[in-house]
C-alpha cells in the first residue's frame, strides 16, 4: 500500500513529534487533538524544533516548509483521506479503545491503524476494531525528532504485510525499526522502567541524592541522562502507569512501583510537564 497522507491523533509531546518527523520525511500530515490549546501548543513546538534543526543543518528549507504545512484539526473528519493513522493520545486503555473504535469507522478500509502506546497490549487494542490484521504498535521515543528507535509491535493478528509497510515507513522517516512481541512493556519499557523504579527506591532509601544518582549513571555508565531526569522527561504518571502494567501483566512483585513515585504522582509532581518532579523546571 502506498502511503502519502499520515493522520496523527494527539498533539501532545509524542504526537507533535511524530507529525513533525512524518512531515520532514515527505508525507502530507494532519495532526488532530480535541483540545484547541494542545493544537496551538503543538504548532509552536514543531516550529521551534524545526527552526533549531534548520539552524543546525539537520533539515533543509523544503522540509521546514512541509512542517509549516501540517494541518492541525480538532476532528476526525479528514481521516478518510489518510493512508495511515498513528494514534498518540493519552496512555489510558479506555481512551485508546474508544479511539480505535472511532478510527475503525472513520479510516478507509485497508488503512493501517498504528498505536504509539508504551505498554498497552496491541492485541487488545486491535480487538476493538474490525481490522486486527491492520493494527500495529509504532512506539516512538521522546524526543521524537532526535531519537532513532521505533519499536514495532505486532498484535496476535497483525499481518506480515502490515508489519512490512510500517517497517518501510519507519525507514523513510530515517528511524531504526526494531520488532518486539506483544508483551507488557514490550522490550523498551520492560527494561527502562524497572531501572527508573530502582533509582527511585535508591532515593527513597536515602542511598544518594537525586543529583548523585543521576551523575553515577551518566558518568559511570555513559547514559545521556540520569534515570531521575529521564523520569521527569517521560512524566512520572506515565512511569507509574507502565510499572503497574508490568506488575499486573507479568504478575511479579519485582515491578511494584516505589512508594515515593506514587506519592509524587498524588501530589501532582509529574516532572517537566508540571514544572516539578525530581527537579524543578
Ligand atoms: N527538537 C529539536 N532539537 C531538540 C529537541 C527537539 N525536540 N529536543 C532537544 N533538542 C536539542 C536541544 O535544544 C539541544 O540544542 P542545543 O545544543 O542547540 O542547545 C540539543 O538538542 C541537545 O540537547 P541537550 O544539550 O539538552 O542535551 P543532550 O545532548 O543530552 O541531548 C537528548 C538531548 C537527545 C534528549 C539526550 O539527553 C538523550 O538521548 N536522552 C535520553 C532520552 C531517552 O532516553 N528517551 C527515551 C525515553 S523513553 C520513551 O520515550 C518511551 C516511553 O515509552 C516512556
Strand order of the largest sheet: 3-2-1-4-5-6-7-8
* Total domain units: 2
**Overall mean pLDDT score?**
97
Classify the secondary structure makeup into a structural class: alpha/beta
What percent of residues adopt helix (DSSP H or I)? Answer: 40-55%
What ligand molecules are bound, each kind once? acetoacetyl-coenzyme A
Poorly predicted tracts of residues: none
The CATH class of the largest domain, by name, is Alpha Beta
Structure description:
The chain has 281 residues and is of the alpha/beta class. The protein folds into two domains: 5-181, NAD(P)-binding Rossmann-like Domain (Rossmann fold), CATH 3.40.50; 189-274, Orthogonal Bundle (N-(1-d-carboxylethyl)-l-norvaline Dehydrogenase, domain 2), CATH 1.10.1040.10. 47% of the residues lie in helices and 14% in strands. It has helices at residues 13-24, 36-55, 61-68, 93-106, 122-126, 160-172, 188-204, 210-221, 227-234, 236-250, 259-267; strands at 5-9, 28-32, 71-73, 84-87, 112-115, 135-140, 149-154, 176-181. The protein has an eight-stranded mixed sheet, sandwiched between helices. The radius of gyration is 19 Å and the shape is globular. The termini are far apart. The model has no long low-confidence stretch (mean pLDDT 97). The protein binds acetoacetyl-coenzyme A.
Amino acid at each position: 500500500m502506498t502511503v502519502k497522507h499520515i493522520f496523527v491523533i494527539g498533539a501532545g509531546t509524542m504526537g507533535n513529534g511524530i507529525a513533525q518527523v512524518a512531515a520532514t520525511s515527505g508525507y502530507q500530515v494532519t495532526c488532530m487533538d480535541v483540545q484547541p490549546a494542545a493544537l496551538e501548543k503543538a504548532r509552536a513546538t514543531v516550529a521551534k524544533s524545526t527552526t533549531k534543526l534548520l539552524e543546525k543543518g539537520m533539515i533543509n528549507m523544503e522540509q521546514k516548509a512541509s512542517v509549516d504545512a501540517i494541518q492541525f484539526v480538532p476532528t476526525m473528519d479528514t481521516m478518510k483521506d489518510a493512508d495511515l493513522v498513528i494514534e498518540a493520545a493519552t496512555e489510558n486503555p479506555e481512551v485508546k479503545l474508544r479511539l480505535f473504535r472511532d478510527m475503525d469507522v472513520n479510516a478507509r478500509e485497508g488503512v493501517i491503524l498504528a498505536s504509539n502506546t508504551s505498554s498497552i497490549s496491541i492485541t487488545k487494542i486491535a480487538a476493538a476494531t474490525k481490522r486486527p490484521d491492520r493494527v500495529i504498535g509504532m512506539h516512538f521515543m521522546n524526543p521524537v525528532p532526535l531519537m532513532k528507535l521505533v519499536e514495532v509491535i505486532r498484535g496476535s493478528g497483525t499481518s506480515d504485510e502490515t508489519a512490512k509497510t510500517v517497517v518501510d515507513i519507519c525507514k523513510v522517516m530515517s528511524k531504526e525499526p526494531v520488532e518486539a512481541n506483544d508483551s507488557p512493556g514490550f522490550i523498551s519499557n520492560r527494561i527502562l522502567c524497572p531501572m527508573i523504579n530502582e533509582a527511585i527506591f535508591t532515593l527513597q532509601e536515602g542511598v544518594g541524592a537525586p543529583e548523585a544518582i543521576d551523575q553515577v549513571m551518566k558518568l559511570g555508565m555513559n547514559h545521556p541522562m540520569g534515570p531521575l531526569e529521564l523520569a521527569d522527561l517521560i512524566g512520572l504518571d506515565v512511569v507509574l502507569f507502565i510499572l503497574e502494567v508490568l506488575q499486573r501483566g507479568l504478575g511479579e512483585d519485582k515491578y511494584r512501583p516505589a512508594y515515593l513515585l506514587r506519592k509524587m504522582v498524588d501530589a501532582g509532581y509529574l516532572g517537566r510537564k508540571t514544572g516539578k518532579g525530581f527537579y524543578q523546571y
